[in-house]
Amino acid sequence: MTKLSDSVQYVKRVGPKRVRILNRLGIETIEDLLHYFPRTYSDRSHPKPIAGLLDGEYATIKGVIKARSIIKARKGLEIIKAAIDDGSGIAYADWYNQSYLIEYLKEGTKIAISGIVEKGYKKTEIKNFAYEIIEEGKELLNTLRIVPVYHLTEGINQKYLRTIVKRVLDEYAASLPKFLPLDIRRRNKLIKISQAISNIHFPKSSASYKDARRRLVFEEFFLLQLGIALRKRKIEEVGKGIRYRKPGELIGRFSQLLPFELTSAQRRVISEIISDMQQDKPMNRLLQGDVGSGKTVVAVYALLKAIEDGYQGAIMAPTEILAQQHHLTLQELLIPLKIRIELLIGSMGEKEKKGIRKIVEEGKVDIIIGTHILVQEAAAFAKLGLIIIDEQHKFGVLQRATLRKKGLNPDVLVMTATPIPRTLALTVYGDLNISVLDEMPPGRKGIATYEVPREQRKNIYLFIENEVKKGRQAYIVYPLVSESEKMEELKAATEMQKHLQKEIFPNLRVGLIHGQMAGNEKKKIMTDFKNKKLDILVSTTVIEVGIDISNASIMLIEDAQRFGLAQLHQLRGRIGRGEYQSYCLMFATPRTFEAKRRIKVMTETGDGFQIAEEDLELRGPGEFFGTRQHGLPELKIANLLRDQKLLETARQEAFAFIKKDPNLRKPEHKLIRKSLLSKFKGGLEIS
Fold first, then answer.
1. How far apart are alpha carbons 117 and 91 in whole angstroms?
2. Are the C-beta atoms of 572 and 584 separated by less than 8 Å?
3. Is the dihedral of CA 252, 254, 257, 262 positive or negative?
4. What percentage of the chain has pLDDT greater than the value 90?
5. Residue 396 pLDDT greater than 60, yes or no
6. Sorting pLDDT into bands at 50, 70 and 90, what band is 376?
7. What DSSP designation does 501 have?
């Protein structure tokens, strides 16, 4: 007998040719077919009387074939014409080049048809229709019911897919693994898995669909959160962490040096982090806040706590330019404390990198700042106590684990300037505790954001020139680095910098920075801009994160519709960091609903958390936050926005479950263990 794990080719009416087509849809096994859920549904369960049909509507009729004939048209085309009577009126339907159907479409045959109504002067026709012959005891799959609609590929149609799904449901639904414990199922009022899988494909009503979906979403979230709970436990079981002492002299001196008051949110988060660092187990904490909420200062407090107790700190950034920015910022902040800070990035010469690695290993460096090179190369530490990973969405879980292995169970603080919706934080960062900076430093003025008509270009350039004459600086951001044949209409940064310098701002100093430049070249450009040796900086998204120039108060974004919402918000965050009113101006030609929505949201709010929710809704979690790079399984049916309450319930159940059986060793949990390992596909270790 075939099993759920067997190839789908063993299903009747599949075979070797069609199996290749199904494989293109990701359907390889019988179980895959059962979990190939409909993308939507067509409600054909309520037939309408023919006399009441409206022109252009999609409708279902049910009647008897009163007359039918076959005619031969031009070029050998054969058409079966049939008249269907339901007692209230007559509708007509045509079948093209299917003359073999004449044997089935006999007069007196009961038939159901769902299609588009076309009302003429004297007759009603049904076009683009699905039909089924009504026979005693035969279950209909395409009409007179709520009908599933699947994603297709060339070579198969809806009717075929519904047929084989139904066949597999009838034969295998009852044998699906029933791993969800009965007490959890009863507590959460969940239906049986066989019932859920049948009703998700062929729901009998709206209520049966909702019950089916609820069961499947809960199960998907439960397995996901079980995996996260196991990861969290594994991290906590690594061994004893560093138990730091109470904050001492170094932290006290730094607090006195600060030229500003900490916000209450910063004080609260610093307290959470220091408290975590004083525990026996290693810290695993996510620090998130909006652009400009003061995460760097919070991170410095954590670093100083490690240094006070004789340990080293490491900061890993996603780009060299951000690593360089951190290096400059920390040097300025910590000069009076005589803290030794070094930078280690890929564009450095081999001799220089070797020298830095040596002094890090000898313990002569307090803080080392770098990019992925800290993970990829043999960077060793004398006494690593704290790892800070900035802009975590650029890094995967495995990289985080690799860096952790380089020290003696160091504490980990993950920072992201892209606010993360709560539902996503519970999945992507479910193994971390979360601190949120939900307050901006006082005195910050909001950034005035406008979409500007392109006809106003001359006026915008004049506005920029006037602001620069007042002593301000400006960014002009382009989506491309060089001209592209496929995107000819876009302004390339390299071409436009020359044009702007020569034709538009001949009396100003216009610089250029982009991702293809060498690291030392980028560093020089940013230093010149910071030191006001440049008035305007033409850039690509290389400035998206971490650049902090308080005098820059204007940003002009070209072709803003080409950027994602979070990206636009991050770019905007490069201005508004000083005492002056800042302006973000966007030239855009949005053609799609999503692009129009992105631009509208930017002009309506500056709240990064609200923007993150909008971005998640527009893009979906996969694109918003590539879950695969985080070692998490893709969600097939659950929706992180719509199913937030169910996610939190499943998380509570999963964490409580792991508490009772930490490694899923109990015999009755064998099925859960197997399903979990299958779901994570090698991305999870269970001891």
1. 9
2. yes
3. negative
4. 57
5. no
6. low
7. I
Which residue in the block uniquely carries the two structure tokens 């918000």?
569
Residues spanned by the domain of 513: 447-605
Question: What secondary structure letter does DSSP report for 542?
Answer: G
Q: How many domains are contained in the chain?
A: 4
37 and 82 together in one domain? no
Quote the pTM value.
0.76
DSSP E strand boundaries for 99-242 = 110-119, 124-133, 146-149
- Comparing CA positions, the residue from 366, 365, 316, 367 lying closest to residue 345 is 316
**Using CA atoms, how far apart are residues 182 and 25, in angstroms rounded to an integer?**
33
- Dump strand ranges (E) for 264-319: 284-289, 312-316
Average pLDDT over residues 170-194: 94
The total number of residues shown for the chain amounts to: 687
Q: 470 and 593: one domain?
A: yes
- 32 and 50 part of one domain: no
Query: Rounded to whole angstroms, how far apart are CA atoms 265 and 382?
Result: 34
**By three-state DSSP, how is residue 57 classified?**
coil
Q: Is 143 exposed, middle or buried (0-12, 13-18, 19+ CB in 10 A)?
A: buried
Q: Is residue 93 part of a domain?
A: yes
3-state SS class at 48: coil
CB contact burial 554-589 (16+ within 10 A = b; e otherwise): bbbbbbbbbbbbbbbbbbbbbbbbbebebbbbbbbe
Q: Are strands 552-557 and 582-586 parallel, antiparallel or unpaired?
A: parallel
Q: How many CB atoms lie within 10 A of CB 458?
A: 9
